[in-house]
Design brief:
Blueprint: E1 2-12, H1 16-25, E2 33-36, H2 45-48, H3 53-56, E3 65-66, E4 79-80, H4 89-92, E5 96-97, H5 102-111, H6 119-129, E6 130-132, E7 146-148, H7 156-167, E8 183-186, E9 188-189, E10 191-192, E11 195-196, H8 199-204, E12 213-216, E13 220-227, E14 230-238, E15 241-253, H9 256-266, E16 269-270, H10 272-277, E17 284-285, E18 297-305, H11 317-330, E19 340-346, E20 357-362, E21 378-385, E22 393-395, E23 406-408, H12 415-432, E24 441-446, H13 454-464, E25 466-467, E26 497-499, H14 514-529
Parallel strand pairs: 1-2, 1-15, 2-12, 6-7, 15-26, 16-17
Antiparallel strand pairs: 3-4, 5-9, 8-19, 10-11, 13-14, 14-15, 18-21, 18-24, 18-25, 19-20, 20-21, 22-23
Helix pairs in contact: 1-14, 6-14
Bound molecules: flavin-adenine dinucleotide.
Length: 555
Amino acid sequence: MIKSEPFDYIIVGGGSSGSVLAARLSEDPDCTVLLVEAGGSDWHPLFHMPAGFAKMTKGMASWGWHTVPQKHMKGSVLRYTQAKVIGGGSTINAQLYTRGNALDYDTWANDEGCTGWDYRSVLAYFKRAEDNQRFADDYHSYGGPLGVSMPVATLPICDAFIRAGQELGIPHNHDFNGKQQAGLGFYQLMQRDRRRSSASLGYLRPNQHRKNLTIIQNTFVSRIALENKRAKGIVVRRDNREEMIYATREVIVTSGAIGSPKLLMQSGIGPAEYLKSVGVSVHHDLPGVGSNLQDHLDLFVMAECTGDHTYDNVTKWYRTLWAGLQYLLFKSGPVASSLFETGGFWYADPNARAPDIQFHLGLGSGIEAGVARLKNAGVTLNSAYMRPHSRGTVRLLSSDPEDAPLIDPNYWAEPHDRKMSIEGLKIAREIMQQAALKPFVLAERLPGPSLKSEDDLFDYGCANAKTDHHPVGTCKMGTGPDAVVGLDLSVHGIEALRVADSSVMPRVPSCNTNAPTIMIGEKGSDLIRGREPLPPVTFAHEKNDQRPRARQFVM
Ligand SMILES: Cc1cc2nc3c(=O)[nH]c(=O)nc-3n(C[C@H](O)[C@H](O)[C@H](O)COP(=O)(O)OP(=O)(O)OC[C@H]3O[C@@H](n4cnc5c(N)ncnc54)[C@H](O)[C@@H]3O)c2cc1C
C-alpha cells in the first residue's frame, strides 16, 4: 500500500454536505482539507441547465442502484438513483428548494433528543446558506453561497393548477418555507442566474483555488482506517492500487444516506453479528448503522392534455434545437425550466398537526426514469406521503466494497403509510379534475378512471410507485441505543470520526431533502471548528422593535 501526505481533515464524499464542509473548513488557512469524491466533475452543460434534470434519473452520474424486492409492495424492485458526481444530489436533483415544517426540527429536538437542532436553531443555518433572489425576512436571507430563485419558465397550466387547488379548498401559498407550509404555489428553485446552483457551484467553485483545499475526483474510498477506536485516515483505490491517506485531526463521512452507512460497515463499524455474517471484521459494534432508513414514496396521476400545454413536445428534434438556442441566446424557454415548478403541501390525514402530503406538478409525462410517456402532451401530478412510519435498512451484499448495497426502504411496512399514500393520490386526482384545469386536461390516463377501489389503487401503486430520492436516517443522530452519531455529529465510541450528511437526520423532514442537508453541512462546520453556534432566530415581531414597518392605507 502506498502512503500519501497527511491532511488535517479528510471529507469522504463531495456531495451536498461534503461540498459545504470542504468550503467552510478550508476558510481557516491554518488547516488542510482533502475532499474525496467517487464520481467525476460537473463540467457537462446538462448539469447546469435547469431542464437537464430530465436526464438525471435515467442513469447519468448515478451509482445505478435498485432496492431489494419490496415485501409490502408485491415484491416490486424500484430504481434507486443516487448521485455519483461532484456536488452529489445537488448536481442532479430537480432543484426544488424546500425546508419542511418547524415541527420537523422541533420533533428532532424534543422527541429524538437532538438538543440544539430545533427549528429556530437550524433556521439560522438555512439563512446563512441562502442567497434568496426575492425574500429577505424572518425566514430568508441573501448573500449566502446557495442561489435560490423564482422559476422563470412557467406555463399557464401552472397558474391553473394553483387555481384548481383553491377550488378544492387548498389555499395559494407564495412561500412554502415561510410562516405557513400548507397550500399550493410556485416552488423556489436552487438556481442562480437561470442556472442550477448546486453545492459544488455555490461552495466549491469559488474556493477551489485555496492552497489548503485539495479536491480529488473519480476516487473511491474503500474504508476508514482505524487504530484503537480512532480514525487515522482513509484507504482509497486508485489505478488498481490501495493508498492510505492520513488525517491528523478528523475523518468526516459525507457519502450520503446510502453511501455513509455502507462505508462505516465496510470499515467494520456497525451491528457486530451482522458484519461477521458477511465476512467483515468488526472494529466497533454500533447496532444503529444502516437502520432507520426513511424515504418518501411517490405516486402520481398522469393526464393527457387538450393541446400543447406542457414541455412534452419539446423532444421533437426541431423544437429541441430551438429550445437550445433560446436558452443559449436569452436564457429562457423550456431549457430554463426545472420541469417541476409548482406544487405544494396538504393533509392526507385531516387530523395531522402539520401538512403530510407533498405535490409536484411535472410539466410533461415520462420526465423521470420508469415513468410512462404519453403519445400526446401530458402532465403529471406526483404526491408523496411525507411522514412515513415505516423504517428500512442499508446492508452489505458482501465484504467487497465494490458491491452495490442492499437498499430496503421497506415501503408500506406500516399499513398507515400505505393508507396515507393512497389518500394523497386521491387528492391529486381531485385537483386534476377541478374546473380551472378543464381547459388543459383532456382525461386521466394513469391510474385511469377505471381504477377506483383501495385494492385497485394499491395494485397501481405497487406497479408504478417511485422513490422521491429522499433517503435519510441511516446514521441517526441522538443519544439512544440506535443512535450512530451524537449531537456534535461524532460517531459514538470512535474518536476523530464524524458523519455529517442526510444520513444523520433522525426523522425525514416533510420536504425535499437538499436544503436540510446543506443546513447540516453548515451547522456541522461550526461544530467541527469548535465555533459558537449561531444564535437561534428571533422573529421581528418578538424584538419589541418600535420602527414603523407598514403604513396603514385606508381605501
Ligand atoms: C434524482 C434526485 C432528485 C432530487 N430532487 C431534489 C429536489 O428537487 N430538491 C431537494 O431538496 N432534494 C432533492 N433530492 C435530494 C437531495 O439532492 C439529497 O437529499 C442530497 O443531495 C443528499 O446530500 P448528501 O450530502 O447527504 O449526499 P449526496 O449528495 O448523495 O453526496 C454523497 C456523495 O458521496 C459520494 N460517495 C459515496 N460513497 C463514496 C465513497 N465510498 N468514496 C467516495 N465518494 C463516495 C457520492 O458519489 C456522492 O457524490 C433529489 C435527489 C436525487 C437523487
